[in-house]
Design brief:
The complex is a heterotrimer. Chain A is built from 12 helices and 2 strands; from the N terminus they run αααααααααββααα. Chain A is mainly alpha-helical. Chain B has 10 helices and no strands. Chain B is globular and about 50 Å long. The two termini of chain B are 28 Å apart. The mean pLDDT of chain C is 90. By secondary structure, chain C is an alpha+beta fold. Chain C contains 2 helices and 3 strands. A 3-stranded antiparallel β-sheet of chain C has the order 2-1-3, with helices on one face. Classes of the chains: A mainly alpha, B mainly alpha, C alpha+beta. Chains A and B meet through α2, α3, α6, α11 and α12 of A and α2, α3 and α10 of B.
Chain lengths: 297, 212, 96
């Protein structure tokens, strides 16, 4: 590592932040772009499973709330991609890499949704897992990214409440509705446990070393379990892991997640990966004329 | 059913169905920025529908959700324009533009109504519609010379006329700059509505009477 | 396409703070898009949209000589104030 990069590393490890116009080591810039890209892609692809249920929302209030929630996710993608663009990667290139499989998006968005139960579980628990990761970005060494995270975290707080409200309506409803929630939870548990990534020690995580993230993977997962398992259990729902328990030291232990599944899914082999990428490609292609003619000014 | 309820349901059904159609663009609009803006329009429309259903529900002794979701397709009073499956941008903007123009003509009339409750709601809707109109006009201006947009406007024109009562159609024609023509009248639904209704009410019908 | 920087005023009377940016073909689109991205929840009293190219940034300074006389921390009055007070109280203090 050259002296200038060394100085930069020391600066960010000391809590220093940088702006878009500052000199950035190439390694830092590339890692940052890749990380931010994956985040933006995840917001974008996360829209697709939820979009279906906007159309099927069973009350006017739920339709409004779900449309607003998903609108936020699209807005987040815009905020995030703008940061990546200012780092030097144009949006067309970001989309091309997403569709070709070169760039990834988070595991949870590669899975199918089957019922309104999924709508609740996604908004309550998947968004909760995401917000934990997002809070760990609030002090990102790259200031433009840290700043948008503030708006993102603020908006995500509504999503979790909305999710909880959807779940509670079903849990206080009919037996079939309660069964929908349990069934959805049974399917989403494994992806949720994989979501924060395999537990590499913080000191071996480049995202921590460059102070892009302020938290290691396992720390995030523990925070999720600590916050949300009690909420799950208090509703009489069961978690499909007989080994899940909280130790006296406050540390949660659980069955080892399937890290091979995670790797396979994020590299595009999830149950809905290709279908969703194809859907996105279809509309990008269909409206290309709008961007090329009308919006190119 | 009174003439008032009938009118309220026509207005509400138009807003609900056009709002549902506009919400189909969530996540797939030409740009992310447009996606966010377009979603607000869809939400506003659903909000208008809800307010209109609530007025009708008070008269009919039911609630807004029951009116929005628990009727059969034949019982809806929406105009064919809003039912059409048009998941293509030029057609979508053409519908937005024509619907906003037609809606403005009818809202202007409603704001002058003796029915103070309805006139008040129309005024509220009108204030929000200002932004819908700005948006539609902005896009229509940009697409003015685009052949597929002009073709879409021509194709949807008879449907646009059908949104309004006959006496209001000349005003719409004047504003849009097209000749009045035979309208696709309200009263006969397109095949697109049945498919839309099936998807829209799928969860609701899975557990009739349940709270969600 | 132009990048418009968005400045947001949270409540009337407060300063406008930089909130992000929107890329748009012109001011009309920037308006339509920014108002939803930064105001759909009624969270902003006002927005300013400024084409990025119109912003002239200043990030470097020449700070070679002591400028503390221009700032509050350039003044240390404690010692002299103590002395002046003692002098003012002096004759009264001696007679006690």
């Amino acid at each position: 590592m050259d002296a200038r990069t060394q100085e930069f590393l020391a600066y960010v490890q000391d809590g220093g932040q940088v702006e878009a116009t500052d000199w950035l080591p190439e390694e830092y810039r590339q890692k940052l772009i890749k990380f931010i890209e994956m985040h933006g892609n995840s917001e974008l692809m996360g829209v697709l499973p939820e979009r279906e249920w906007i159309l099927k929302a069973p009350t006017l209030q739920r339709k409004l709330a779900l449309t607003a929630k998903v609108q936020d996710e699209v807005g987040h993608a815009q905020l995030i991609y703008r940061v990546a663009e200012d780092l030097g990667k144009p949006r067309e290139e970001i989309f091309a890499d997403l569709l070709s499989g070169k760039a990834k998006f988070h595991n949870v968005f590669h899975y199918p949704t089957k019922s309104w139960g999924d709508v609740g579980v996604i908004a309550w628990l998947v968004d909760a897992a995401a917000i934990i990761s997002q809070k760990a970005l609030l002090k990102c060494s790259y200031a433009p990214y840290a700043r948008i995270m503030k708006k993102i975290c603020w908006e995500e707080s509504f999503h979790i409440l909305h999710g909880r409200d959807v779940i509670l309506a079903m849990m206080t409803g009919t037996d079939s509705q309660r069964a929908l929630v349990q069934e959805a939870l049974d399917r989403w548990w494994a992806p949720l446990m994989q979501f924060h990534g395999n537990p590499i020690p913080r000191d071996e995580d480049p995202m921590w070393l460059w102070r892009i993230k302020s938290q290691g993977n396992e720390e995030a997962r523990q925070q999720f379990l600590e916050g949300y398992v009690p909420q799950i259990w208090e509703l009489g729902l069961t978690v499909p892991d007989p080994n899940l328990r909280r130790g006296d030291d406050g540390v949660w232990t659980y069955s080892e997640p399937d890290w091979d599944e995670l790797k396979s899914v994020v590299t595009g082999h999830g149950p809905r990966s290709q279908e969703r990428l194809a859907f996105r490609a279809r509309f990008l292609e269909q409206e290309k004329w709008v961007r090329d003619t009308v919006l190119a000014a | 059913m009174s003439a008032r309820s009938d009118l309220l349901l026509s207005l509400a059904d138009d807003e609900l169905i056009v709002g549902w159609r506009d919400s189909e663009w969530t996540g797939i609009a030409p740009t992310l920025e447009e996606d966010v803006a377009f979603s607000s329009i869809a939400q506003n429309e659903i909000g208008h529908a809800r307010a209109l259903y609530e007025l009708a529900a008070a008269e009919l002794g039911t609630n807004a959700d029951a009116l929005a979701f628990d009727r059969t397709p034949d019982e809806y009073r929406c105009a064919p324009l809003v039912e059409l499956h048009l998941l293509e941008w030029a057609h979508t903007i053409a519908r937005r533009y024509l619907y906003e123009e037609a809606d403005r003509v009818r809202i202007d009339a409603l704001m002058r109504s003796d029915d103070s409750e309805l006139a008040g709601l129309a005024a509220k809707i009108d204030r929000e519609e200002t932004y819908h109109r700005l948006h539609a006009e902005m896009w229509a201006e940009r697409l003015r010379d685009e052949p597929r947009f002009r073709a879409a406007v021509e194709e949807l024109w008879p449907y646009a006329l059908g949104v309004l009562e006959p006496e209001l159609r000349p005003e719409l024609a004047r504003r849009v700059g097209l000749e009045t023509a035979a309208a696709k009248e309200r009263g006969e639904h397109t095949p697109d509505l049945a498919e839309l209704w099936s998807e829209m009410t799928e969860v609701r019908r899975s557990e009739p009477g349940a709270e969600w | 396409m132009t990048v418009f920087e968005v400045f947001r005023q949270e409540r009337k009377g407060q300063p406008f703070a930089h909130a992000g940016s929107v890329e748009a073909p012109d001011a009309a689109f920037a308006d339509a898009w920014a108002r939803e991205q930064y105001g759909r929840r009624g969270e902003s009293a006002a927005l300013w949209l400024v084409p990025r190219g119109s912003i002239h940034a200043i990030t470097d300074w020449a700070d070679e000589f002591d400028l503390k006389y221009r700032r509050v921390d350039g003044y240390s009055i404690k010692a002299r104030l103590k002395e002046a007070r003692e002098r003012a109280l002096g004759p009264a203090a001696e007679s006690r």
